[in-house]
Amino acid sequence: MLVYSTLFILFLFLVFRYVRFLQLQELNKWTLPIAFLIKIFVGILFNYIHERTYGQGDLSHDGGTFLAEGKYLNDVFFQSPKHYFQLLTGIGETPALIQQHLSNTNYWTAGDLTLINDSKNVIRVHSLIHFFSGGQIMINLSIMCFLSLLAVKNLYLSFKKYVDLNNVIFFWALLLIPSTIFWTSSILKEPLLFFGISLFLRAILYEEIVWRKTTYFSVSIFLLIGFKPYVLLILIITLVFAAIYKFLFKQKFILASLFIIFFTFLLSFLLDKPRETVINYLTRKQFDFVNVGKGGLHAYADSCFYYFQPHQYESLKVVNRDIYLTKNITAYKVHFGSTQKPVVVHLNPNKKAWKMYYFQQGCMSYIETTPINNSSIQLIKNIPEALTNSAIRPWPTDPGSKLKIISFLESILLFGFLIYAIWNRRKLNENEKLIVFGLLTFACLLFLLIGWTTPVLGAIARYRFPAQLALFIVGFILLQSSKFKLWKSTSS
Predict the structure, then answer these.
(1) 379 vs 265: CA distance, rounded Å
(2) pTM of the prediction?
(3) Least C-beta-crowded within 10 Å: which of 28, 58, 367, 454?
(4) So where are the chain's domains?
(5) How far is the C-alpha of 326 from the C-alpha of 317, rounded, in Å?
(6) What are φ and ψ of residue 369, in 5° steps?
(7) Which of 35, 30, 27, 7 is nearest to 17 (CA)?
(8) What letter does residue 164 receive in the DSSP assignment?
(9) How far apart are CA 285 and CA 379, in angstroms?
């Protein structure tokens, strides 16, 4: 099996070397093959760290579950191809079908608003890969690294004409951004998300042929809807704000920013129902993340779920997966996959067993955050906290493993690089100013969403990589490389 995995990696290595349309003509022909091997190495390192920190809350243990449940889904094909394609496409999927074939899975039936949302699509991808991987993790990993390296190529093509750096330096800088190469060299959602974002940007910034632009844009929409819909929403909002900046305020950065902030607040207060829906959604997402961060147990009781916190376990009797309450207790009544507000309920000992549905140990890197509590005023008050948590933390003194030091150092590197780039900035043309405005808008919106809802520093480090990537690209665009002879641009 090791030989098979090695041969498959070698095959992809040679694909990058000899398939012409995958190459970058202005770079050495060995650049992409070597970059691919680097990503494979980082992927192996990721798996090692993943195994060493499993269950500690600093890195997601989604990867193993994605592979296992991908195999379960793949097995359905050999029992009933019809049922497999129903589950694969979602067309004709029913609770009875899930119970028949996937009753031993955890992620497949999870609610849409839990921490593990969008996971079914990742499981679908791994079930397809399983047809020729035979369960070898290196095959799955190499395909994800292949896609994420194509994403780096797409970003390079999208931004190279707006950057005053040597092409070679710019490519390797994009590849080696710490959070990007780490999280996208994995078997998680991030490589697929990264590929989707890169296609979106390539369609807008690089492609001029209509059919190619349409194809890349369509595939990007499909991927972003499938794996991170909120990122697609933020990208669309960014395009709207960029249009306001360009056409309404003629590239006046401060005036456009103030208008957008004022108009957003005004619109949110005028549109009561949409505002309440958004606030309710964010409140529920925060509630779910806090539950996962603190740890807890969800018990299924006919039409709802009861959530018990770790300090309440002494009041529970657990027999296999049956849950019995031994004394009166106060808990939360919640509805998985629903935006309904959790309700505090008083429970009496039950004679009919509740079923354990979801159990999670507390996360080592959990931090306290201010509850939103369905309040738009509180949401606004939480903005400084949200931006600090998502853009800068973890601090060296925060809870979590030693990995937090690496994440903290990257934040220092990022903002130090931005300050340096601003200090040594060059004069930008109108298109470059527009792109910088768009990247800053995207990063701020993503930082806000993550900071509002996520109280686990390990999860924050994972989710924020597109925002950090956007800020690094802003620095590359601003930087005047002519101050350094080594970096003098060789492009035309």
Answers:
(1) 12
(2) 0.88
(3) 28
(4) 2-208, 228-279+368-487, 296-360
(5) 7
(6) -130, 160
(7) 30
(8) -
(9) 13
